[in-house]
Description:
Shape: globular
Strand order of the largest sheet: 14-15-16-13-12-17-18
Largest sheet: 7 strands, mixed
Number of strands: 20
CATH superfamily of the largest domain: Aldehyde Dehydrogenase, Chain A, domain 1
Amino acid sequence: xxxxxxxxxxxxxxxxxxxxxxxxxxxxxxxxxxxxxxxxxxxxxxxxxxxxxxxxxxxxxxxxxxxxxxxxxxxxxxxxxxxxxxxxxxxxxxxxxxxxxxxxxxxxxxxxxxxxxxxxxxxxxxxxxxxxxxxxxxxxxxxxxxxxxxxxxxxxxxxxxxxxxxxxxxxxxxxxxxxxxxxxxxxxxxxxxxxxxxxxxxxxxxxxxxxxxxxxxxxxxxxxxxxxxxxxxxxxxxxxxxxxxxxxxxxxxxxxxxxxxxxxxxxxxxxxxxxxxxxxxxxxxxxxxxxxxxxxxxxxxxxxxxxxxxxxxxxxxxxxxxxxxxxxxxxxxxxxxxxxxxxxxxxxxxxxxxxxxxxxxxxxxxxxxxxxxxxxxxxxxxxxxxxxxxxxxxxxxxxxxxxxxxxxxxxxxxxxxxxxxxxxxxxxxxxxxxxxxxxxxxxxxxxxxxxxxxxxxxxxxxxxxxxxxxxxxxxxxxxx
Length: 480
């Protein structure tokens, strides 16, 4: 029996409630284009209730000891782990990714909650030796306050849990603005927090018009921290608004990751890792490799084998476990892919496989490999965020580093080489928040996750991930 897709309400002050105005938004299955459910549409009056709840929740949660926060969050992780199979079906129904990728995303979310639960117990301060007798100088860490978090549709569980878990571990409350395309999976995540017995108002969830919600929440004095994952264009707008109100900000924005395959690279390793990570989640991944820069020695061989591997990727409904790639999230992504491809072809690019929509039902697009894509083509300058792989050749090392750093993006970068010296130079020369050499070694919760330049600032992983949710307080006390 097929699992029914649930309608989604708002979660405010510990209760699941419809929007006050009764408005809803249709949710579509990207594999069939059919309406499968509805999500409550919040307006200003709903946001006012969420803000009041977040303040009340913060007043309670900040006084809960780190040890007790840890215990509560571990209970959440346990509940989420028990519900993986059920939530994975919901995630695939609304987002499209293959069911095994959905399960993997939720398993990662369990690890994220566990990690931040532990980190919350280690928000240590320190004692600074004083210059005079009788003075005690101490540094403490305090939660910054209620948080407004904004997440995208490509990883609604993963991105939602990074924001919730880091905020809660620090002692903050949060209002999470979920993606309207993928509401029920985010709600299922939030339900785990609610069912674990967290105080009302600690975690709140809303949906609606993104610009309306972000402008209202960020400018409200109750909100003291803003965290956003999404496009660079929107991120700049939100960062500007947050800056006008002196709010702390974490911005995880777009990328355009170079993948450099050097002359001395292990081609088998490079191909296996790069093909898998290029087409995971239909390429709708901010850290996906997007500009393939291959040494001329390996270029023809790499193109032929990459093309062959891409052409064998089975595309279809993610609920069918035999399919390796699901649909794009919505019709706008199909239009974007067609625009990127037509632009590249008009400039002389060649398609070695794929290049067009697959079928006439569902938002499926073929895994696409292109060569001879000129540097002024749109896909070489704008984040493609889809299953497009432009492959170019290079001859000298300096030129490939220059190309890797050419764009204003700086989120993730990849390289393959058997030389320790070359690896060291690549690691220090590439302008990127994350560099992975000879494997796909990023997005682990114990490591920093964030970019530089137009890819944002702040981190959502490692010990750095909790710092953005804490204020540092210095106390100097002289005994009398």
